[in-house]
Write a structure and sequence with these properties.
Blueprint lengths: L6 E5 L5 H9 L3 E5 L8 H8 L4 E4 L7 H7 L5 E4 L9 H6 L3 E3 L6 H16 L2 H10 L19 E5 L3 H10 L6 E5 L5 H4 L5 E2 L2 H7 L2 E4 L13 H6 L5 E4 L8 H9 L5 E4 L19 E3 L8 H19 L11
Parallel strand pairs: 1-2, 1-3, 3-4, 4-5, 6-7, 6-9, 7-8, 9-10, 10-11, 11-12
Helix pairs in contact: 1-12, 2-3, 5-7
The structure holds glyoxylic acid (GLV).
């Protein structure tokens, strides 16, 4: 027997099968989905959200005052298929007493793997080397050709020693990293002990690291953190990697640092905007490797994320504890 009054749920994109099945089986919900691989236009999202009780969204959906007003007073739960919540206007959401679910932990390993892949790809210049093979630039073995930078005996600086930052450090340690530095809101002695990582101010981390990996969340205090001052402090042999959010970096300042040789190279899984226009100047640089925000993109991880997101949504709608509630 279906309950007389169904709760209306809107899902902003196609999601992996396990999460989709959980929603489809929920007898107390009427689920609508944006059934396309193209992103839902914001006007359409506003229209489809009217009267909804629950929303399952992704990081490219901006959940702001306008959308919340369009949704109306029924809205009780927002479940995002991401660990980041910077696309949600948390103040407005809190004011309305709406609960938020997110997907931490389950994507930590996949994201850390991607960060290490991107770091190695960038510091050993793999895309450039592959291009040389294809275009005939590989004429012979030459002692000084295609040399990059190795992790052995290096100093690695992690911006944000959270779950993902630590998972990255854990994976980098066996490469022979000599010293770990980290920066963030406050020292985390217990977490840092595993790597004997030293807490330092951001500019000291910039000055002393051979490799920098940005793994913090985007907040008002991290927005634009990696700017001209930061890049000017870096060694000209240092490699910069960002797997968090594009807005942690001042992209114009990064571009100047890469073009001028102020820093050796950058690997970015995140940019501003996303997607980056194909004629963006960063894409013309050989010492910049850019990926399309694929940190958590393994089949298993995305499936698990969809399960957590669906369960967060259903639990929130039913007034039960969520598997992963974002506490505001
Ligand atoms: C990815 O960037 C996420 O926030 O899950």
């Amino acid at each position: 027997m279906r309950p007389a009054r169904l709760m209306k749920v809107f899902v902003t994109c196609r999601i992996p099968p396990e999460g989709r099945a959980l929603l489809a089986q929920a007898a107390d919900c009427e689920v609508e989905q944006w059934d396309s691989d193209e992103p839902i236009p914001s006007k359409e999202l506003e229209r489809r959200m009217a009267g909804a009780h629950g929303l399952l969204c992704i990081l490219s959906n901006r959940i702001d005052k306008k959308l919340l007003d369009a949704a109306g007073a029924n809205l009780k739960v927002i479940s995002t298929l991401s660990v980041g919540v910077d696309h949600l206007s948390l103040d407005e959401i809190k004011k309305r007493g709406i609960r938020v679910g997110y997907t931490p932990d389950v994507l930590t390993d996949a994201t850390a793997e991607l960060a290490v892949s991107l770091l190695l790809t960038t510091c050993r210049r793999l895309p450039e080397a592959m291009e040389e093979v294809k275009t005939g630039g590989w004429t012979s073995w030459k002692p000084m050709w295609m040399c990059g930078y190795g992790l052995s005996q290096s100093t690695v600086g992690i911006v944000g020693l959270g779950r993902i930052g630590r998972a990255i450090a854990r994976r980098l340690k066996p490469f022979g990293v000599q010293r770990f530095l980290y920066t963030g809101r406050q020292p985390k002695p217990q977490e840092a002990a595993e790597f004997q990582a030293e807490f330092v101010p951001a500019l000291q981390l910039a000055a002393e690291s051979d490799f920098i990996v940005v793994a913090c969340s985007l907040t008002p205090s991290t927005r634009g953190l990696c700017n001209k001052d930061f890049f000017q402090k870096m060694k000209n042999t240092a490699v910069f990697v960002n797997i968090s959010r594009g807005d942690v970096v001042n992209q114009e300042d990064l571009y100047q640092a890469l073009v001028s040789g102020q820093i050796a190279a950058a690997g970015l899984d995140v940019t501003t905007p996303e997607p980056l226009p194909t004629d963006h100047p960063l894409l013309a640089l050989k010492n910049c490797v850019i990926l399309p925000h694929i940190g958590s993109a393994t089949i298993r991880t995305r499936n698990t994320m969809s399960v957590v997101a669906a369960n967060n949504l259903l639990a929130g709608l039913r007034g039960e504890p969520m598997p992963s509630e974002f506490v505001m």
